[in-house]
Specification:
Elements (H helix, E strand, L loop, with lengths): L21 H5 L3 H5 L6 H7 L4 H11 L9 H22 L6 H8 L3 H5 L6 H23 L4 H18 L1 H10 L5 H27 L8 H17 L1 H4 L9 H23 L4
Helix pairs in contact: 4-5, 5-6, 8-9, 8-10, 8-11, 9-10, 9-11, 9-14, 11-12, 12-14
Length: 275
């Protein structure tokens, strides 16, 4: 496996001030979703709730059936250690070879502390899938606030690039480790990708019906868009001139903008948009 930018360092997320209850609110308050600012990557980091303490607090509250401890502060801190260590171990030697004892050694946590947060290592994959699924749903909900179908597509592209940049270790891990899950849960995980394709296909078909787009085979176009979005977080060495560890936020934004413009140009061409 190629060495990953942003995974070798343990997948630590950029640190920004976000309310610790923001993740919980996103599950029920659609207005909160729409407050995410995509005018720039910097503004996105300031408003996107799936990061820092809020992210792990949300995991604690959403996975109470797995997490045994009732001590929120303890669980939140340990979940961050567990997820960060898992991303690093998986990048180096593979998740399938990782044991909970490996995780205990890497995190410097006792086996008892590990088991208080997860019952088996597959629970980690389920937690990651939950966050990626939520991020993907937030992308679609954000885009729906736009008036025109083309703007919805633009916003979907930008939001996804921003979210998958911030959560790159999560997206990457889920893509390759879905196979670690039971068949029914594998299907639920792959549904995340299919939902993204369905969303773009629906926007494209509506645009064709209204005369805004002229294109054949909306499904193939939607699939092409999603494949290129996946390339962004699966193969950063193709699209970014230096590793994440060496990038400033400004440089990262420049890389995102360049890739976004390439996506926009390609998508306009496929949809027959000439202006």
């Amino acid at each position: 496996m190629h060495e990953l930018s942003g995974v070798k360092n343990g997948g630590a997320l950029e640190r920004h001030s976000v309310s610790t209850s923001a993740l919980t609110r996103t599950t029920s308050d659609s207005a909160e979703l729409l407050r995410v600012d995509t005018s720039s990557y910097t503004r996105f980091l300031e408003t996107f709730p799936l990061q820092e303490e809020a992210l792990y607090t949300g995991l604690f509250e959403r996975h109470g059936d797995v997490i045994q401890t009732q001590k929120a502060k303890f669980a939140v801190a340990n979940l961050e250690k567990i997820l960060t260590a898992t991303f690093e171990i998986s990048a180096n030697s593979g998740f399938s070879r990782m044991s909970l004892r490996d995780l205990s050694k890497k995190t410097e946590m006792s086996m008892g502390a590990i088991y208080s947060c997860i019952g088996r290592k597959e629970d980690i994959v389920l937690m990651v899938a939950d966050i990626v699924r939520l991020s993907s749903q937030m992308t679609r909900d954000h885009a729906k606030a736009s008036d025109s179908l083309w703007t919805q597509i633009e916003q979907s592209l930008r939001y996804h690039l921003y979210a998958s940049t911030l959560l790159q270790p999560w997206y990457f891990f889920l893509y390759f480790e879905t196979r670690s899950l039971p068949v029914d849960q594998q299907q639920a995980s792959t549904r995340i990708e299919l939902d993204a394709i369905d969303s773009f296909q629906g926007q494209i078909e509506a645009g064709i019906e209204s005369g805004q787009f002229t294109a054949n085979n909306p499904r193939a176009i939607a699939n092409s868009i999603v494949v290129l979005l996946e390339d962004w977080y699966l193969k950063p060495w193709k699209t970014q001139l230096q590793s994440r560890e060496l990038q400033t936020n400004q440089q990262r934004e420049e890389f995102i903008d360049a890739y976004y413009l390439d996506l926009i140009t390609m998508t306009k061409s496929l949809l027959g948009i000439t202006e």
